[in-house]
Amino acid sequence: MYPFSKSISNLRSSEIRDLLKLATRPDIISFAGGMPNNNIFPVDDVNEIYNNLNPELKKIAFQYGPTAGFPKLLDNLKNFLREKGLPVDKNKLMITTGSTQAINVLTKEFVDPGDYIITEKPCFIGALSSFRSYEAKIESIPVLNDGINLELLEKKLDSLPVTPKLIYLTPNFHNPAGITYSKQKRKDLLKLLGGRGIIMIEDDAYANLYFDEEMREMSRPMKCEEPDNVTICYTGSFSKILGPGLRLGWLLVSNKIFEKSELIKQAMDACSPNFTQIIASEFLEKGKLEPYLEFLRKDYFERKELTQKALEKYMPDYVKWNEPRGGFYYWCEMPVGYDATDVMSISIQKGAVFVSGKTFDPAGVKNNNFRLSYSNMSKEQIDEGIKIIAEAIKEYTRKKR
Ligand SMILES: Cc1ncc(COP(=O)(O)O)c(C=O)c1O
Q1: What pLDDT score was predicted for residue 226?
Q2: Is the Cβ–Cβ distance between 45 and 288 less than 8 Å?
C-alpha cells in the first residue's frame, strides 16, 4: 500500500466518470455527460482567429502568462460581464483553469479540515469532489422547483454548532436539478444569509443559456445586487458557451479575497493556458460570442423540446420531471424505492445511458432520481434514446413486482 494522504481517501471514482468511458462506445446513446456536441463548436471562427493573429501574439500564446489571467482577456471579459450587470469594477476578476479550479481555489482559501460547507441536494459532483478533497463536512439542503428549501436551510444554520464557512449554490439552470431560482427566492435567501458570515459561492456555469426572455431576466446573478452583508464569490466558465477544452473559467471576488486567490492559483498551476485565453479574448473582442450564444440558445431549446416530446410519448406516468427553461438537464424522479443504477444497467444493455441520482447526492444514497443531459448526442438520437430509457424503466418495474 502507498502512504496516500488522508484527504484523498475521501475521494472515490464517480459513476459519472466511469460512465463517460461508456459514453464513447459508438452504439450507445448518451444522456450522461454534461458537455456540448462536438459538431457545434465554432471551429471555423477559431481557425480564422488563429490564422489572423498578429505574429507577436502567436508567440505570446506559447508563453507563461500572469497568474490572474491574460490582461486583454480580462478586459474583454469585464466588458461582457459588466453588460450583464455584474459589479466588475468594485471587484477583481481572475481567469481560472475551468470554473472547477475557481471552486477549488475558494475551498482552499476558506476551508480547514472539519469545517462545514452547505450545498444543495442534489449538487454538482465536481464541487462535491473539491469539498471532499479539503476534508469539509458537507451539509446538504434539498432544492425545490424555485430554488433551495429556505425553511430547511434556516433550521440547519440554526442547529449547526458553528457557522459554515461556505454555501455553494448554482441558482441558474441547475446541474443536475434543471431548475432556476425565482426572484423571490434569491431575495429571501440573501435576507436569510445576511450578517451570518457565511461566504456564498454563486456558480453560474450555465449563464446565458436561457430559453426565453423571462428566464434571461430571472437568471440575473445575485452577485449583481452586491449586498453589504453577504459576501458573494461569483464563478463562471467558457466551458458551456465556447468549449470545455479551452479549460477557462473565472472568479469575481472582492480585492481581499482576490489577493489570497491569486497566491493559491500561483501554487496550483502558475497560470491558465495563454493559448486558449488569447483565442477566447479575440472571440469576445471580435463580437463573436453574442451571435454564438444566440445560436446555442436556439440549439439547446430545440434539444429540450425534442426531449420533452419524447418523455411525454414514452415515459410511464409514475416517472416525473420538471421541464428546464435553460441549460442542459432534466432531473427525473421515479417512485421511492426504485434504484436508478439498476435501471441504468438495463438501459445500457439496450443502448442508452444516463446518470443515476446518487452521484449528485452529497450522502451518496438517494437513488430514485436520474439526470438526462440533452446537450451531447445528435438530435436524431433523442427520441430513440428516451424510448430505450423508458423501456428499461418498464422492464425494471416488471422485474421488481
Ligand atoms: C454547475 C457546474 N459548475 C462548474 C462546472 C465546471 O465547469 P468547468 O470546470 O469546465 O468550467 C460544471 C461542469 O459541468 C457545472 O455543471
Answers
A1: 93
A2: yes
In this structure, are strands 199-203 and 232-237 parallel, antiparallel, or unpaired? parallel
| Nearest ligand 1 atom to alpha carbon 103 | 4
Give the CATH number of domain 54-285: 3.40.640.10
pTM of this structure: 0.96
Out of 99, 169, 240, mutate this one to test ligand 1's pocket (max ligand atoms within 8 Å of CB): namely 99
Q: Is the CB of 237 under 6 A from ligand 1?
A: yes
Phi/psi of residue 220, each to 5°? Answer: -60, 125
Q: Label residue 24 by pLDDT band (50, 70, 90).
A: low
| CA gap 149, 153 in Å, rounded | 6
Class of domain 6-42+291-400: alpha beta
CA of 159 to the centre of ligand 1 (A): 31
Ligand 1 atom with the smallest distance to the CA of 247 is: 10
What is the residue extent of each domain of the chain? 6-42+291-400, 54-285
What percentage of the chain has pLDDT greater than the value 90? 91
Across residues 260-275, what is the average pLDDT?
A: 98
